[in-house]
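sorry to bug you again but im stuck and you know this stuff better than me. theres a chain ive been looking at and ive put its sequence and its fold in C-alpha cell form underneath. id like you to explain what the C-alpha cell line says about the fold, in plain words if possible. anything you notice is useful, everything is just below.
___
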Amino acid sequence: MLLPPCHAFFQFNVDTTNKKLNLQLYQRSADMFLWVPFNIASYSTLLLLVAKITWLKPWVFTHTLWDAHIYNNHIDQVNEQLWNKPYPLPELKILKDIKTLEDIEKLEWEDFELIWYKSHWVIKAPVAV
C-alpha cells in the first residue's frame, strides 16, 4: 500500500436503556475535501445496517479526526464549495429485509433508496497521495 489506512478503528456502543446504537470512528488522517464526506456517508450507512440487524435504533455517529487537512491543490475547489448553500439532508432507506451479517454482505445497490437527495454541480479535484 502507498499509505497506511486512514481509519484507525471504529466501535459500537449500545444504550441498553433506550435500545439505541451509537458508532464512533477514529480517523488518523482526514482529507476534508475529498474523503471525509464519503467517510461520513459510509459509516452512517454502516450504523443503519448494524442497527437494523440488532433491532436497535440508529442514534449517534461520532467522527473523531486527528490530522484533518485540506491539500494545497484543493484550495480552489474548497473555495468554490464554500459558496454552495447546503441542502436538507436526504434519507437512506434499506429496502431489503436483513437480519444477519451475511444478509448485509449480499446487499446490492438496488436494495437501497436515497430519498430527497439533491446535490450541487460536481467539483473535481485530484486525489493526493
